[in-house]
Prior knowledge:
The protein is an alpha/beta fold and about 550 residues long. Helices cover about 40% and strands about 15% of the residues. It has helices at about 15-25, 35-45, 50-60, 75-85, 105-115, 140-150, 160-165, 190-200, 205-210, 260-270, 305-315, 335-350, 355-380, 430-435, 445-460, 465-485, 490-500, 505-525; strands at about 1-5, 10-15, 70, 85-95, 135, 155, 170-175, 185-190, 220-225, 230-235, 245-250, 280-285, 290, 295-300, 395-400, 405-410, 415, 425. Strands 5-4-1-6-7-8 form a 6-stranded parallel β-sheet. The radius of gyration is 26 Å and the shape is globular. The protein starts with a strand and ends in a 13-residue tail after the last helix.
Amino acid sequence: MKIGLDFDNTIACYNDVFSSEAKIKGLVNKEWEGSKQDLKLLLDSQEDGQTSWQTMQGKVYGPSMQKATLFPGVARFLLRCKLKGHTVFIVSHKTKYGHFDKTKTLLREASLKWMDNQGFFKDALFGINRKNIFFANTQSEKVLKIKSLNLDVFVDDLEEIFLHHDFPEIKKILFSRSSSIQSSIELFNNWTDIEKASIGEIENSEIKHLVNSIYDEPIKSVEKLKGRGNSRIYKLSLNKKNSILLKDYPDLSVDPRPRMQTEVNALKLVEDLGRTPKVVAFDKPQNIALYEWINGESLYKIEDHHIKQALNFIENLQSLKEKDSWTPASEACFSAKQLIKQINFRFDRLLKTKNNDLNDFLIYTFEPLLSKVWENSEKNWPSNNLEKELPKSMQIFSPSDFGFHNAILKESGDLVFLDFEYFGRDDPVKLMADFIWHPGMKLSHSQKIDWVKGAFRIFDDNLGLSKRFTSAWPLYGLKWSLIVLNEFLEAGWYKRVYANDNLNHLHQQKLENQLNKAKNICKKIQKTNMKCPYIDDLDE
């Protein structure tokens, strides 16, 4: 195929550059966060905002061009195009100089330099022919060039390009979050979906080539496994005895959390503890990582000694140094106000789905219970200080998504713990509560008591731990009742299907199951009268 791509804001991402330059110029405060479009809307609402915006564009696309990054997913798309023998063309509407750019930076030369630095023209990487790069002075000139190339598909972030009266009858892919939606235009907000729509699902032979770009050993065979959580998992056999694991993480445009980099860094940190897979290799542009293959099986029957192993790992984890240099874990919670804020955010997001069964549960069951639980927590929180954050000295290292659902049982009986995508600093209360509340954990009553008792022993120097835990326990339960409803969200379901595409035809059944799980969690909180049932006997 002959594939055409726009350049600015389609391949090259300027969101961070615009934000950085706006802060330097004092157009936004230092805490401001948002996309290029968010900034444009903000400036348009201000006096002389259009001039500020044009000046900003001149700076970003000119002198600051080299600070741009590839959009997540573009690198793999280009690598796959090369592997499949597709010819890539880049056609960009770009003038010689930027408006209001006093430096008179040559925009086209700056763009070519950026492409060169990204490996666009290197045979070892994307292998794009320089002769296939075209710049146009106007949109009309751009459209005519696209037409003359006899392309099979074109990807652009501007719908007006496709609506131009001279645009050819080819496959049109709009890279955007919104559109007036013309029937002939396919809309996608991430490059993973663009890749699938234009060049198809990735094949095992391609996976071998992509892996060999970061790993020298020849791959004998590729086996796709049932995805863990949100990632695609592959077993790569090197020979009859040795294998490695490939983890293909979700598109960062769908979930911006740096899962791959966090997990790689975390596993390197904990490697000497001997309870986790070793990192073999990783590639940030492709958003993939290779890990040691662990022979073993999922843990279906939890025994008391497994609880001891989990506690031992958590205890040893706290002996590692440089805790302060780590960022908070995903959805870390250091105060009661942060916790209720997280719950309210999830509630509001789910309420917008306009699913009748879900809305009935949220309005008539969840919301009244939340009000009751929060009132109880307000009364019992240590020192009644709901806003005070837990000091760093009392924060812990947490895998965040920790439990036997993310573990492998080796023949020796030892457990190996997996999935450190959300690793970081957190309150031990969150770790303790999540371990119990996670719906994938099938623990007996006595095992839950053992876990809580063991955790208190490990974190006995954490002042106010007992009172914080008992006050927060029902709140974390309510949060989990919302987490299990993620499949009702478009992004949540997307990540599940990305990990396991066999789920697509089971969507409605899955929604019903998850809603029942949420209801059961709420029933448990009501049944226990918001009191944690695993803490009464701790002093016995």
